[in-house]
Amino acid sequence: MKKLSPESGQELLDLTYSDFLAVFDRLSAGVIVVNLRGRIIFYNDGMAKIDGLDRASVLGKTPTEVYDLTPETSMLVQCLKTRQPIIDRPFFYRTRMGRVANTIHSVYPLFKNRSLKGAVCFVREYNALEETLSRVSMPLPKSNIGNDTRYTFSCIIGSAPEFLQAVNTAMMAAGTPSPVMLYGETGTGKELFAQAIHNQSSRSKARFTAINCAAIPENLLEGILFGTSKGAFTGAQDKPGLFERTGGGTVFLDELNSMPLSLQAKILRVLQERKVRRLGSFAETCVDLKIISSVNRQPHLAISENSLRPDLFYRLGVVFIPIPPLRDRREDIESLTRHFMEKHSRSLGRNPAAFSSEVMACFRAYHWPGNVRELEHVIEGALNLVGPGDVIALDHLRSHLPTWYRMMNQSSAPDSHFSGHLPEPEADDEWPLPEASDGRDPPAARRAKSLLRTQEERERRLIAGALQAFKGNVTQAARSMGISRQLLHYKMKKHRIARSSFA
After folding, report:
1. What is the rounded CA–CA span in Å between residue 281 and residue 273?
2. Element (H, E) at 240
3. Are the beta carbons of 154 and 126 closer than 8 angstroms?
4. What's the CA gap between 320 and 313, in Å, rounded?
5. Against a cut of 0.70, is the pTM above it?
6. pLDDT tens digits for 75-111?
7. Are 12 and 36 in contact (CB under 8 A)?
8. How far apart are CA 20 and CA 112, in angstroms?
């Protein structure tokens, strides 16, 4: 067991606790103990395996120095502040070294003679929890086994702050019967989130049914959802609808704002009464469902356009989860690119191909109107064109380049719909941008490089202007820019902008 030396100047807990530390050292779960100053004084092997870190490098540091967290998002810091335990909370976090973990945390304050001395945090990985449950004959659902799903939370890739917040909210929503509404543009992964929530819930062994409300005509959709009774119309048969057939499971209403308002009123009644009535029948059938819905338009905008009933939004949006578009989580492009390359290389029976620096520059500068789905299709298409051992270059994206050029020009325009903040290129990416000084770079690469630098400078000026206008008040500045306070802190750190300069 490694501890801080007395010479370090950090106070150790006065443990009569010491007997417990020997036990903690042997636990498979991760254990962290911090003192009253928030410094880590104990960090066991289980935690080191979860984080992929060396124990000695962690001791003496604060959680915000080890993990990509703020004092507001660190459970250990909050436990010290509130003196209240935090029990069995799902948490998706990233270390400062870039490793991402999907875990459950329980944090408890440590007292001696009613005086707070520190806090202890117990951490379990979801994968480890799954294995434990399997050993006691309580298997969790696997992809494509019995419930019509393929995705769990382990399939979700991303480490951008707003994206991690969406994942955390989804994990917590999975443990409740409350309706969930997902908001995101086409291709952001709404059904992936919906399936993950279902597979994390107590209904995971039951059926998951997804319905694309935009793809089915109104005259057919009602019968599909509610079922039909013999004689309701010519050729009608007694047939249960999807609500009945999914009893005990989860129904996902995709693109709810595309559903006719008359049908939305009937959905509202199902939610209120927990009963469905087949077309042409007077009898009602009780149903037990968790309903997850999605919209591809901002809900209040959809309401103003009369494409979404406000009462249905308030009923279905009990838990509302916005999923950020890919252009707002550009730090995830590298990991997503690698994931899709490995996925489609396996399906095509080929070795993964490398990407040129010009291609990565374009990927980071492109607006991605089709979001993650578009990125996957671009990579799959390029892999079909590249030869064995070749590097994917701009020429392999030629079918996509016209769109790239058009969106590049749009993102540079003053009225671009970037919602107040611009794309953020990654300066420390292992695919460096091409040097432009010798003039030998392809024209598209030089334009991409210039665009990235221009956008970065515009973002820096925009942030500085907002902070100056509100005299360093981060909350008001973030609100004026239409982004979260946490994201503004992230961008201030990236651009080395100090709040104190404007206070």
Report:
1. 17
2. strand 239-240
3. yes
4. 10
5. no
6. 999 999 999 998 878 777 777 776 777 778 899 999 8
7. no
8. 15
